[in-house]
Amino acid sequence: MRIALPLLLLLLGGFHHLPAADPGPAAAQAEPSVGASAPARAEVPMPAPQLPDRDASPAPLTFDILQSKIFPEGGRTVEIHRVRPPVLPAPPVVVPLTEERRAELRRLHPRAFMTTRLLWLNATAYPGGQYYLEWQSPAGGSTFAAWSRADMRLFSALPEFDVAGTNTRWLLLVSVRPSLRPPAAPPLPLRVPPAIPADGPGFLLVKGDAANSLAMEPVTALHELYAKDKPQLVAKWEDRTRLRLAEAARPALPPPPPKDTVIHYWPKQSRRHGAGPAAAPTP
Question: What is the pLDDT of residue 262?
Answer without folding.
Answer: 94
